[in-house]
Amino acid sequence: MKKIIAFMTAAVMTAGLLSGCGSSSAEATTAAETTAAATTAAETEAAAETEAAAAEAAQLKTVTDGILTMGTNAAFPPYEYYDGDKIVGIDAEVAEAVAEKLGLKLEIVDMDFSSIITSVQTGKVDIGVAGMTVTEERLQNVNFSDTYSTGVQVVIVPEDSQITDVDGLSGALIGVQEGTTGHIYCSDDYGEENVIAYTNGATAVQALLNGKIDCVVIDKQPALKFVEANPGLKILETAYVEEDYAIAVSKDNEALLAAINGALKELTEDGTVQKVLDTYIKAE
Ligand code: ARG
User: Fold this and answer.
1) Which of 195, 165, 168 is nearest to 180 (CA)?
2) Per the count of CB atoms within 10 A, which of 89, 193, 224, 257 is most buried?
3) SS3 helix, strand, coil % of the chain, rounded to 5?
4) Which of 181, 195, 220, 241 has most ligand 1 atoms within 8 Å of CB, for mutation?
5) Ligand 1 centroid distance, CA of 51 (Å)
């Protein structure tokens, strides 16, 4: 709030300088004074721009003032995963760039994927960024930003599996990440009794390696990472479902949604988003 007042005062002062601030003294203005006034006006303008960004941030209501709190589930490489004790990946970088545009500091909170939407709704976090697919059902509970990436559900099987395409999923025991679209689609298509939900993709893949399940349905990019890290597994050629990823924002914070979409638009147009995607996803 203080910043907004400061910004307004600066603006009023600038207006005063430009209008000459009175009449009789106008003729008495020396060249030096005019230059000084012009310099001050330019400085004020530059300061005003910085202040404007800060003022925008001050107007954005976030869970903690000045901070953009992001909920994620950091077991989903290359979108979010741990590098030492730091959460890195596509979502971390995109969110960092968005936060910077909004004049906010990013803070990431790791949680179960199935808790993210509720955390956004209840104001525990400002945004959910987790390779999260836009679905009709989720749209009942949160708003979604514009899409910044796409995904596709694929099937991981042991190299010697009998399952050769998506049709082979009928009758198979399918491992999924709890609360994800893979979980929902498989339960709908193949029956809940044939689906086992794990807390995250890594534990589902571990169960597959241990022979507890026949396959894992998960988003393609993490699937590639899991298969790369675990010999003996492969991804079926035929994809299951295609999806759009976006940032979840509380329905009570339309201003934040608009600001995020504005930032995403700029970051898409200037190539930042594509650069981040290219860093983590190798061209096929
Ligand atoms: N795209 C899927 C979904 O939205 C899976 C996302 C899982 N993300 C994660 N960070 N674990 O349901």
Assistant:
1) 195
2) 89
3) 50, 20, 30
4) 181
5) 37
Q: Which letter does DSSP use for residue 79 in this model?
A: T
The CA 41 to ligand 1 mean position distance, Å, reads 50
Give the whole-number percent of the chain exceeding pLDDT 90.
Answer: 77
Question: Burial level of 123, CB count in 10 A (0-12/13-18/19+)?
Answer: middle
Task: State the DSSP code for 134.
Answer: P
CB contact at 8 A, 226 and 111: no
State residue 38's pLDDT score: 57
Give the global pTM. Answer: 0.81
Residue 164 DSSP symbol? -
Nearest CA to 51 out of 96, 100, 101, 10 is that of 10
Ligand 1 lined by 113 (C-beta under 6 Å): yes
Is the Cβ atom of 163 under 6 angstroms away from ligand 1?
A: no
Q: List all residues 6 or more positions away from 195 whose beta carbon is below 8 Å from its beta carbon.
A: 174, 175, 176, 183, 186, 187
Say whether pLDDT at 1 is over 80.
no
Residue 238 confidence (pLDDT): 87
